Known about the structure:
Oligomer: single chain
Distance between the termini: 25 Å
Amino acid sequence: MLRLVLTCLLLLVGLAGAQAPLLSGEDLTLVHDDVQRQYYLYAPPGLEGNAPLVIALHGRGGTGPGMAMLTGFDAVAEQHGFIVAYPSGIEQQWNYVEGIEGYTNETSDIAFLRALVADIAARHAVDARRVYVAGFSNGGFMAQRLACAANDVFAAYASVGAAGFGGQPSVCGELGPLPLLFIHGSADAVVPFQGMSQPTPRGPVTVLASVD
């Protein structure tokens, strides 16, 4: 349910300055596109039946375990009975601009995150109807891209500290209604709330788009 994602995202905002919790989950690997990828997984003991799954995506420069320590989602998962996974991006970032003209990053994080959900479902009983993704900053952009490219896998999406992005309409096309939560501060100095454009010989190009 979307309430799980909302709870997680509000905690992400509120717990950023709290004392980092100790981690008691598993550090796991998944080989994808011949690259060994890492993720930290917490499945509360005693889960009964098929459990919801939340994928939590770090910001640029972060890691999966770092996201777990920043958010304290393990404790939320324990309280509400869901599994939470924190993957690590290659070079500590997510390639949400895959396939957009002008970008050269060839990492397929869309395919990786699809494979990640399948890998977790092979390890634990996951309710395929209740798989969610929440991201912060660069991870928030990635969550938005998954809403376009993996809405057959994820049931709801949430983004903190991320705007819309240039090229998004071209890769998303026309979509029907999707449950997508945005949390973005109007005083954000890293990802401007009002968006950002870049001058080019052909005129200004939108790099970040306001969602206001």
